[in-house]
Amino acid sequence: MSKHIISTDKAPGAIGPYSQAVEINGFVYTSGQLGLNPETGEFGEGVQEQAKLSLSNVKAILEAAGTSLDHVVKTTVFLKDMNDFAAVNEVYGSFFSEPYPARSAVEVARLPKDGLVEIEVIAVKN
Question: What pTM, to 2 d.p., does this model score?
Fold first, then answer.
């Protein structure tokens, strides 16, 4: 069993001792992606912009791994406030099409750097 570490400068770098993603046995597992602009390191304005940036970062990481959002089988969405679910869901729906991946969405007490949303995915390698 050999794992391959995925890294790209088209998504924010890790802010701790972890990888942006790991590929193993034909699957790519991304670390949670905050709604940060990879060029500035700043959060997007509001939960919808942060969700868009989070998913754009996930997309960039998957592309660096040689796969895409079309090959995502599972997502996990972490929300600072579950009242933002509908707003994030609207953005989420613009990134994915049928057949949709499985998904969990949970409200958390706090996210790194006080973000509003964080998204991680598992994708099948092309």
Answer: 0.96
